[in-house]
Amino acid sequence: MDTTLSPALSGLEPQLDQLRETGSLFYQRGWSVGTSSNYSVVVDRNPLQLVVTASGKDKGRLARQDFVRVDQAGAPMGDGQPKSSAETLLHCVVAEHVPEVGAILHTHSVWSTVLSEHFFAAGGFEIAGYEMLKGLDGVTTHETSKRVEIFDNTQDIPALARQVERRLADANPLTHGYLIRRHGLYTWGKTLDDARRQVEIFEFLFECVARDLAIKGQLAMQP
Predict the structure, then answer these.
(1) Is residue 55 over pLDDT 50?
(2) Residue 16's closest CA among 103, 79, 100, 101?
(3) In sequence order, what DSSP letters do the residues of 28-73 get, joined into one string?
(4) Are strands 103-107 and 184-189 parallel, antiparallel or unpaired?
(5) Mean pLDDT throughout 75-94?
(6) Which of 7, 39, 49, 127 would be 44's cystine partner, CB 3.0–4.6 Å?
(7) Quick one: which H or E segment has residue 105?
């Protein structure tokens, strides 16, 4: 197997290894099983460039070669790179419209998938009163409410990217992250560590919400 790193990724070994570590952690937690999920880091802002996971890769066993350097439009920069994730544009619009963002992470957990279907008709749901809300960027008290928006799952990624883009540019913009119906979570942070923390916080909160609904008989679950 050719293990030569493409010229487009040369010099980015530390970032690639951090993304690989993230994939291994999320795989172990059950948030990125099989070839699901995709991750990215911003490597330049003038012009905007990202490194994103390649399509169809096992996130628990990522190699340095399993990434693609792309431009603002999601197009690969340079030859000799694998195909990027089909959802690359969703990373690009966040990186473009949230200037302080340094990493975007997408996971496919059980709880995010279940809640994204359960609350889809309402367009989202509120999470309030939990101490762990303070793990989200800028939240300083548990006495707060966080709305998690849900977008429909579509194979038309450019159309979905435009929907997300409109919400990011809104007067009351989308913050912290969002869900895609029956699909999973997108979240981001100033650094990869920040984004990884937000995944952990969201996943904890999603499980709390789902179990609370089940206890109250509002969400059917198998014993």
Answers:
(1) yes
(2) 103
(3) HHTSS-TT--EEEEEEEETTEEEEEEBTT--GGG--TTSEEEEETT
(4) antiparallel
(5) 90
(6) 49
(7) strand 103-107
Pair of tokens at residue 109: 């957990």
Is the Cα dihedral 52, 57, 61, 62 positive or negative?
A: negative
- In angstroms, rounded to a whole number, what is the distance separating the alpha carbons of residues 128 and 221? 22
| Segments making up each domain of the chain, as ranges | 7-215
**Could you tell me the two tokens for 197?**
């923390």
The Cβ-side half-sphere exposure at 68, using a 13 Å CA radius, reads 27
Q: What is the pLDDT of residues 137-192, one digit of tens each?
A: 999 999 989 999 999 998 899 999 999 999 999 999 999 999 999 999 999 999 99
* pTM given for the model: 0.93
CATH number of 7-215: 3.40.225.10
d(Cα 100, Cα 4) in Å, to the nearest integer? 32
